[in-house]
UniProtKB/TrEMBL annotation:
It comes from the Eukaryota. Residues 162-181 have a biased composition (Low complexity). The keyword Metal-binding applies. Residues 150-201 are annotated as: Disordered. One of its GO terms (molecular function) is zinc ion binding. Keywords: Metal-binding, Zinc, Zinc-finger. This is RING-type domain-containing protein. Signal peptide: none annotated. It comes from Citrus sinensis (Sweet orange). Residues 59-102 form the RING-type domain.
Amino acid sequence: MGNKLGRRRQVVDEKYTRPQGLYVHKDVDIKKLRKLILESKLAPCYPGDEDCCCDLEECPICFLYYPSLNRSRCCMKGICTECFLQMKNPNTTRPTQCPFCKTANYAVEYRGVKTKEEKGMEQIEEQRVIEAKIRIRQQELQDDEERMLKRQESSSMGIALGEVESSVSSSRSVEGEGNVSFQDLCATPMVRQPSHRRANG
């Protein structure tokens, strides 16, 4: 009755308290790692699965699937214990950057298997990201299309102006070759023929 309620320890098979061979870990303190896993401070070292299943989470570093992952304290991204050991050895005090958001002093916590609510929220967030990417891509395509239309319009305007200029210059050269244009008719003064009366008188 006098016991304090603390973090509930999970029952972990002894074989999952040490690395499964995904990487060669030379400086890992196996006793310390075992203690952290048994105290539920790190996820068990489950062997990664290559096939996706609805209850498994994918580690974004090794791309293998696990029953549960550790969470980055800075950005809440998941990572398996073996990949975390590659990033940050629990035996060292050297600061490490988060591989996802680059925050200094990278640390993780283990919260156990994700609840349905957490999975649902994550799916909603992923959907939002996908929709945002689609909107950005559509805007880029629309901008590209508008640029192409402007280029085509400016080039066709240049061609049209060139055609007008060439037709004006060619009509001038034709006029100089003895043909009469409307302008020539208007510019020519009319010469009156002498009347018969004056000529006779």
